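Lab intake sheet, docking and co-folding queue.

SAMPLE TYPE: protein with bound small molecule
LIGAND NAME: adenosine-5'-triphosphate
LIGAND FORMAT: SMILES
REQUESTED OUTPUT: full 3D complex as structure tokens
PRIORITY: normal
SUBMITTED BY: R.K., bench team

The fields below were copied directly from the construct record.
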Amino acid sequence: MSDITVSEITKSFDDREILHGVSFTVASGDFLSITGESGSGKSTLLGIMGGVLRPDGGKVMIGDVDVASLPEKDLAKLRRTRLGYVYQFFNLIPTMTVRENILLPLILDGKKPSLYRDRFDELTSFTHLTAVLDAYPETLSGGEQQRVAILRALIHDPEVILLDEPTGNLDSENARAVMTLLSDLNAKYGVTVVQVTHSEQGAAYGNRTITIKDGALL
Ligand SMILES: Nc1ncnc2c1ncn2[C@@H]1O[C@H](COP(=O)(O)OP(=O)(O)OP(=O)(O)O)[C@@H](O)[C@H]1O
Ligand SMILES: [Mg+2]
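RESULT FIELD (auto-filled):
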């Protein structure tokens, strides 16, 4: 299992510096919440932690892997094996059904979906998605799409899960189901969870909260 070390991350867009040297550590098995105002740089930071965005300076180590400078091919491999990532705006594949979207990390990694049948059934039923498995994302509600994106990040049993506002579109029952799922994975299997959240209730599921303000940690 792997600690995550974020050191001195800087990132600019169009000559405007968004992150000014952010450093912190997430111990293996932690459940960390990242809060902060809209526009403070949370999604940028999470994207850099997950190798979705490249920083201008600094390092992100997941165990002994330097995510920030990993070649694209190795990043893709990391994402379909050890890492689960949930985008704020889901990024589902429109031409694939819900079932195919959820199974995607397995298929990309050459694993047999049938070996993950029980996990798939359990996850989809727990998050109330059983009825929409053969539908396409555009026919789903925002909350349904969000749950599909979350399951796609969990199906391959990653050791680290990064989520950008995972309950932003969910009603309270589904939000509770998702947070319970994450807490269980964290408590029972030691999965490291890092979530960006606006919700105090959501943040409380974690064991630690950090706040980002104007691109720096408070
Ligand atoms: N690709 C981009 N190009 C230009 N500017 C960007 C880009 N991505 C983010 N920004 C800017 O960086 C700042 C931080 O954005 P970010 O998405 O990280 O904020 P956030 O804390 O996640 O906000 P929210 O809570 O609204 O999701 C914003 O001012 C945003 O406009
Ligand atoms: Mg954001």
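REVIEWER NOTE: The chain is about 35% helix and 25% strand.
SIGN-OFF: pending second check by T.M.
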